[in-house]
Amino acid sequence: MTAILDLHPHYYYTAAIPISNLSQYGDTLWFSCDFTYPIPFPVLNVRTQCLNISVPLDWNNSTTSETISIFVRRIYADQPNKPNTKQLWQLGGGAAVPGSVLESTAVQIIQSIAQIFPQGSIDIYLYDKRGTGKSSWLDCTLEDFLYNFAGCITVALKHHNRIKHNTYTNTAKDLKYLIDLSAANNEVYVMGMSNGAYLAQRYLTIAPFQSNGIILDSFPPPDRTQILLQNINIDFTGLDIMVKCSQDNFCSQMFYDNNPIRALYELKMKMMHNGSICGQILNINYRDLSEKMSFCLLGGSFELIPAIIFRTIRCSPQDQLVLKNFLIASQPATDGTQEGISLLFEWNHNWSELWSSIYVPQLSCDTINEIDNTLLFTQKILQTFCQNKVQGDQAKAIGYPQDEYYGKYSNSTIPVIALHGELDQAIPSWMAYHAADQYSKLNPNFRLIKFPYTGHVPTGYSPEIGQGSATTNNCAYKVIVSFILNGGQSIDDTCTKFIVPFDFIGQTDQIKNTAMQFFNTTDLWGKPFTEPISSTTATAVSPTVESSIVGTIIFSITIGGYSNFFFLYYLW
């Protein structure tokens, strides 16, 4: 098979080598490579190597298909002889996101295992899914997608609809092939996060007994995915945060009559009828505010939501300044600087599978929009879907037919653990419980593990009480490490009983850091402001040097180790 060069010169890398078995070559095909991004903590005795491998563009026609290059990174402990090595293949969230975003997570897992399993080691493999990162590109760059969508469609059509072969099934078969080449006699585990968990489930359906265990972190059920209902799930999570505020002595007393939920409804009504002072001064309506608050529906930032509502109601000069900072910091990334992300690839997957469902009745965008108008927390997902429906030339370039694996649960009986944050806005509890029920009927070795006070992707944020910073202290990692070290036969999940509870006051370092990133101050609630507020007495505040600083951190915000740039990609 002959590898096809990338469509974009600046994504060109060493040509892929078709090989029959990696083990027969030892380490001769791997080359030294650096981490893509700086690791935000000390890296001790960990090395990384890389490799390019050819795979068929279409596995259904593997003998005649043209080929593409898949980029693989191996991260491992620097140990002599490396006895008892296990393999972990990590699949990140978002169909469009390359494996490089998981490098820090991989190092954390390796260093955690080295501390408690000195007689052995683990090699972690990250691969850039076809069409992303340093693997062969099948469409245009992120920047082209954002600013020249028509041009992207032209590129996709010009190259004979190659993007239509970027299916979840082909991507899962890539993974099966890579594991076949590299596994030798090692134990192999596959871990998927969010969208990567959807891919891991497809892999498990295709290769039910190839690996020794599967880890699903925030897993979309194969038969219950529909983007048009997503805002309802987001609203449930937002309301759950407000309920917890109502149950907290400090948080509830910040609102009139100790009723934060009623205060939120009243704020929405005022903003909808132009009766909110801060809404007028900041020139923002409630729909926009709710969409921006949804960026705080992640572990480590939930507590900001009641404070945002409180400050919007009070609307002191200090509040106006903080809210200006928040509105800037919650802008989506549009500069196209993140290397290796393919949004056209993302849409190709989403329109074909994740944004449709054969089991959920299809509703019109107008109907869903009317439903969304009744919600307190929303995102722009529906607008993105409805404003960019595939039609005309786009329909020729984007999307693919659903195959025999779509909507199916694997009948594999290998050990599977599923991690679920009980405040997951993307995979709410009813979805996780539904999927767990389906798997439990098929697999006696399936187990659902719940993480309280935790949102989407517990490996991103699930700190234990009194165990250090949220960056290095992670209960989900402990669960995963115990699963792998015990060969998938047992796990230690006692740490889930000691997850850090909500800090509505804003005393912990994590909340102070998050407040600084969003508010440009560590003070969640601000100093008392008792002057009566009316539309005639409120004073608008112009941005100052202090408030403009936050403009330099637009979407480089990090919550619990994850860049918020990838929020929508971890979402699906």
From TrEMBL:
Domain of life: Eukaryota
Membrane spanning stretches: 549-571
SUPFAM superfamilies according to UniProt: alpha/beta-Hydrolases
Keywords: Membrane, Transmembrane, Transmembrane helix
InterPro entries reported for this sequence: AB_hydrolase_fold
Protein name (database record): Uncharacterized protein
